[in-house]
User: Fold this.
Amino acid sequence: MRWKISHNGHDPRQIDLLAVLALVVVIVAAYGYFTHNPNKPSTTAFIVPSQSVRW
Assistant:
C-alpha cells in the first residue's frame, strides 16, 4: 500500500506509527529509569512501624 496524505482525516497507519513511536519512547525511558545507578547511595529507606503502634 502506498502512503497517501489524506486531507480529510487521519490515515490509520499514521496513528499506528505514532503509537509505535510512543511505545518505543516509553520502553527506552523505563529502561533508563530502572538501570540508572547513581554514584551516591540512596537516602530513602523503608520505614518499619514500631510494634507498639496501634492501627
Summary: Residues 33 and 40 are 16 Å apart (CA to CA).
